Amino acid sequence: MVRAVGFDKHFYTDSWKEGNRLFFDQLAPKYDFLNEIISLGQQGFYKRAAVADLQLQAGQRVLDLCTGTGDMALLIAGRFKAVAVDAVDASERMLELARLKKAGSGLENICFSAADALALPFENNCFDAVVMSF
Length: 134
Description:
This protein starts with a strand and ends with a strand. The strands form 2 sheets. Strands 5-4-3-6 form a 4-stranded parallel beta sheet, covered by helices on one side. Strands 1-2 form a two-stranded antiparallel ribbon. By secondary structure, the protein is an alpha/beta fold. 39% of the residues lie in helices and 17% in strands. The chain has 5 helices and 6 strands. It is globular and about 45 Å long.
């Protein structure tokens, strides 16, 4: 059975998981711009404030859940260069944009990968902090 998910005139899918991925794949090219608009230009402030509140030590590990285009992961990796950052998202198109940002940053302590937030491919208790923006 095929169900309409979200904007049914744009795509059909067999599951919410697939619909979510398709939605964010399509949104990816406009994601940063739209976040700037819906946050009234405040998204950078909120993300920097959240990262400033993190109290991380060298050797610790952070998960950026639903990383999108990777802004939080890049901020964390830039501020805490001796911390490992795993950044996951269901959308490969979002991750492509995140990897492009990483390539231009010179940061090596980030790993971007595709993952379902409801079934993460990590062992329990392997992160010292978890972040998620928006």
